[in-house]
Amino acid sequence: MAITAADTSCKCTLSETSADLIAPDSTAEVTLTWNTGSEREFYRQYAIIRTNDPQRREIELAVRGQIRTQLGFSTEELTAPAMSPGSRAEAETILFSQTLDDMEVTEVQCELPGFEYRLEPVSEDLLRSLNARTAWRLCVSADAPDTSGRFLDSVRVGIRSQETRKAPTVVREILFRGIARPFLGPCSVAGRSGR
Question: Which of 75, 81, 91, 144 has the largest CB neighbor count within 10 A?
Fold first, then answer.
């Protein structure tokens, strides 16, 4: 039987066969390779194998599963509410792992002036809602610009498991952004009507 790898579920999924022809009573391997990405928790990918068998022209191979996050953030970025120039910008996110039972934070770095951070424990309810094994509330702050304007920088976070200290540190980055605006206090408008 002749076989060829054909269509796949997306451009990120590749399939290949170990042979183009399969003799009677023989086998061949089909390999699916894909990038799970990080946008969805569950995935399903497939590939079509075409044959010259008149009884079965196509065979669909599918794989599905669940993506587990080794190091994730509960928000896409750290966004500070608008503040007055020269004040402190503050934001927070939940740093979590769905694969590590004991996550040790080894670094939290940012180049913004006056950058500081603190880690706080989270509730069991929050752990369950994230389907996480361990988590920390990451609270960050930095000096806002002395003049009006936006600021933006990456916060680099590194973790490792306390159980496997020899394993490499896992590092992720998250953006920290905000805007400083001058405070406009109460004002009144005086004038005449145009009659």
Answer: 144
